[in-house]
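Journal club prep — side note

Before the paper discussion, L.F. wants everyone to see what a predicted structure for a comparable chain looks like in token form. Sequence:
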Amino acid sequence: MLRQSLQQKQTQKLSPLQIQTIKMIELTGLEMEQRIEKELEENPVLDDASDENSDEETSRSISLDEYHGEDPTPSYKLYVNNQSKDLKPQYNTFSVKESFHQSLEDQLGYCQIDSRQRQIAQFIIGMIDDDGYLRRDLESLTDDIAFRLNIETTPEEVEDILHIIQEFDPPGVGARDLKECLLLQLEAKKQTPSVDLAITIISKYFDAFTKKHYSKIIDKLAITQDELKAAIAEIVKLNPRPGGQIDDSYTEQAQQVVPDFLIDLKDGEPELSMPRFSVPELRINKKYAETLMESANNATREKKEAAAFVKQKLDSAKWFIEAVKQRQNTLENTMKAIMDYQHDFFIDGDEAKLKPMVLKNIAEKTSLDISTVSRVVNSKYVQTHFGIYPLKYFFSEGLTAADGEEVSTREIKTILSNCVNEEDKSKPLTDEELVAVLKEKGYQVARRTVAKYREQLNIPIARLRKEL
């Protein structure tokens, strides 16, 4: 039996102002400055009153509410499309992947090889991962090259061309596994007794080395403990992810950080400011103002069309300036709430004073949606007298200490890291022993939780932390 029912569903349609504000909240300080400059360039109605080069004869300040003449254009034509599926703005940034592979392509240009070999080499470079490894086997690569490039080749030829790429910078690039990566880097170093011994250890006793079976290596190679230490010192300097070390102007541009907030101490109390933020004073060019004023008494089609254009630009300017102000207020209120919540931390930067805090805490404190707080927190930084921090740094879940007091997971991680740093490296602490140490300090933490935090801190298991 089919049933029909009538449901009333309430849907909220975002206004142009709301869309502008959402987009602006996600922008960093630098991106916001660029956004303002772009709007000033594209909207002829807007002028920056702080511009020293502005000509007072060609522009004058006019209130946006000054014009109340008849609007010749239906209101729906003055609204931007607010049904976009993706409100997140697209940014022109460069990723590490692009610059890393471009570096390899540039080096390939200096190689004395024919066009056929160059095509194969370019294909191999394209298959190298961001961390610098080639994780496709030679047989598969050979098949891919035949299928995609229509070039018949052999695994042996592909490997010969790969060896050419493996001579590129950074050392270790194009390796097929960690062992080959370390060997490529060692072979690129100045050959000394310690480096030669390191090559022998990695090439012949790699498994024993990774498991830290040092006594076995000493016996097999008939070397002293000091000689082994010197060889290990050479190995630990190597980069297990050679692709990640590329750092050029592209990555610097993509990773540039400018603080959006500044917190200083004033009379012993934290004080917030937003030094980089400035809202341009809105001023309307005189010729556009006159077009609007004259259109009220002039019914010609041309004048009305001109007035409609200027009115549309006026509305756009009003939404833009209001969105800028709302962004400033939202950012300021959110940062003030974070500063109040983490008051003790902002006094001296002691991580142990960080309180457990989630987005919901700040949303309740500011009466903002959690999604709005999340947008503010994302990609924003605060400068303090003890360092620069991403706002995400201050958010973490909490645990309960033995005395019932709630403590931040970051506090637990700090203590855990200190325990590992202070341990006897000849007998490193197991996860069970770390649980016992934390319990002695008043923190009830399960072994699996310790293991999770240890992994998040990039701390190896006890066996791999063992040293001679």
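L.F.'s comment for the group: Confidence is low (pLDDT under 50) at residues 5-11, 55-98, 246-255. Keep this in mind when we get to the figures.
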